[in-house]
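Attaching the record inline, Q. Sequence:
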Amino acid sequence: QVQLVESGGGLVQPGGSLRLSCAASGFTFSRYAMRWNRQAPGKERELDATISTAGGSTNYADSVKGRFTISRDNAKNTVYLQMNSLKPEDTAVYYCNAVRGANAYWGQGTQVTVSS
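Structure, as predicted:
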Protein backbone atom coordinates (compact mmCIF):
# COMPACT_ATOMS: atom_id res chain seq x y z
CA GLN A 1 0.00 0.00 0.00
CA VAL A 2 1.44 3.31 -1.11
CA GLN A 3 1.58 5.98 1.57
CA LEU A 4 2.94 9.51 1.70
CA VAL A 5 2.57 11.06 5.13
CA GLU A 6 3.37 14.74 5.59
CA SER A 7 4.21 16.26 8.96
CA GLY A 8 5.71 19.41 10.44
CA GLY A 9 3.03 21.93 9.59
CA GLY A 10 1.62 24.39 12.07
CA LEU A 11 1.22 28.03 12.99
CA VAL A 12 4.25 30.30 12.60
CA GLN A 13 4.78 34.03 12.70
CA PRO A 14 5.86 35.96 9.60
CA GLY A 15 9.60 35.66 9.15
CA GLY A 16 9.67 32.32 10.93
CA SER A 17 10.70 28.88 9.74
CA LEU A 18 9.21 25.41 9.48
CA ARG A 19 10.53 22.10 8.24
CA LEU A 20 8.07 19.77 6.57
CA SER A 21 8.71 16.05 6.24
CA CYS A 22 7.08 13.46 3.99
CA ALA A 23 7.60 9.81 4.82
CA ALA A 24 7.04 7.40 1.93
CA SER A 25 6.26 3.70 1.90
CA GLY A 26 4.86 1.07 -0.43
CA PHE A 27 6.94 1.96 -3.48
CA THR A 28 10.60 2.32 -4.46
CA PHE A 29 11.17 5.83 -3.20
CA SER A 30 14.61 6.27 -4.78
CA ARG A 31 13.16 5.82 -8.28
CA TYR A 32 10.70 8.69 -7.96
CA ALA A 33 11.21 12.40 -8.33
CA MET A 34 9.60 14.17 -5.40
CA ARG A 35 7.70 17.42 -5.30
CA TRP A 36 6.18 19.74 -2.75
CA ASN A 37 2.99 21.50 -3.79
CA ARG A 38 0.61 23.77 -1.93
CA GLN A 39 -2.97 24.88 -2.16
CA ALA A 40 -4.20 28.06 -0.55
CA PRO A 41 -7.91 28.61 0.20
CA GLY A 42 -9.78 29.45 -2.98
CA LYS A 43 -6.75 28.89 -5.19
CA GLU A 44 -5.48 26.10 -7.41
CA ARG A 45 -2.78 23.74 -6.26
CA GLU A 46 0.65 24.96 -7.29
CA LEU A 47 4.07 23.37 -7.50
CA ASP A 48 6.68 24.78 -5.14
CA ALA A 49 9.72 22.56 -5.47
CA THR A 50 11.02 19.44 -7.21
CA ILE A 51 13.97 17.18 -6.46
CA SER A 52 15.41 14.47 -8.68
CA THR A 53 15.68 10.82 -7.70
CA ALA A 54 19.21 11.06 -6.29
CA GLY A 55 18.78 14.61 -5.05
CA GLY A 56 21.29 16.14 -7.40
CA SER A 57 18.86 18.45 -9.15
CA THR A 58 16.28 20.80 -7.65
CA ASN A 59 13.88 23.36 -9.04
CA TYR A 60 11.77 26.00 -7.33
CA ALA A 61 8.87 28.24 -8.13
CA ASP A 62 9.84 31.90 -8.25
CA SER A 63 7.59 32.58 -5.26
CA VAL A 64 9.70 30.40 -2.96
CA LYS A 65 13.14 30.55 -4.54
CA GLY A 66 15.78 31.58 -2.03
CA ARG A 67 13.49 30.88 0.93
CA PHE A 68 12.56 27.19 0.59
CA THR A 69 14.91 24.22 0.24
CA ILE A 70 13.85 20.75 -0.82
CA SER A 71 15.98 17.74 0.13
CA ARG A 72 15.63 13.99 0.42
CA ASP A 73 17.09 11.06 2.30
CA ASN A 74 16.66 7.92 0.23
CA ALA A 75 17.86 5.76 3.12
CA LYS A 76 14.93 7.03 5.19
CA ASN A 77 12.42 7.25 2.30
CA THR A 78 11.76 10.83 3.30
CA VAL A 79 11.63 14.17 1.53
CA TYR A 80 11.88 17.50 3.34
CA LEU A 81 10.96 21.10 2.73
CA GLN A 82 12.83 23.67 4.78
CA MET A 83 10.84 26.91 4.72
CA ASN A 84 12.47 30.12 5.91
CA SER A 85 11.38 33.75 5.90
CA LEU A 86 7.76 32.67 5.80
CA LYS A 87 5.14 35.13 4.64
CA PRO A 88 1.37 35.23 5.23
CA GLU A 89 0.90 34.35 1.56
CA ASP A 90 2.66 31.04 2.20
CA THR A 91 -0.40 29.95 4.19
CA ALA A 92 -1.71 26.79 2.52
CA VAL A 93 -2.05 23.05 2.76
CA TYR A 94 1.26 21.53 1.65
CA TYR A 95 1.31 18.22 -0.20
CA CYS A 96 4.17 15.97 -1.16
CA ASN A 97 3.98 14.17 -4.47
CA ALA A 98 5.96 11.28 -5.95
CA VAL A 99 6.31 11.15 -9.72
CA ARG A 100 7.74 8.57 -12.11
CA GLY A 101 6.53 8.61 -15.68
CA ALA A 102 2.76 8.25 -15.64
CA ASN A 103 2.73 7.20 -11.98
CA ALA A 104 1.99 9.79 -9.34
CA TYR A 105 1.21 9.48 -5.65
CA TRP A 106 -0.02 12.15 -3.27
CA GLY A 107 -0.07 12.63 0.46
CA GLN A 108 -2.98 13.99 2.47
CA GLY A 109 -1.32 17.31 3.18
CA THR A 110 -0.25 19.33 6.19
CA GLN A 111 -1.54 22.79 7.07
CA VAL A 112 0.88 25.69 7.30
CA THR A 113 -0.46 28.97 8.65
CA VAL A 114 1.69 32.09 8.71
CA SER A 115 0.14 34.72 10.92
CA SER A 116 0.97 37.08 13.74
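The first strand starts at residue 3 and ends at 7. The mean pLDDT is 97.

More tomorrow.
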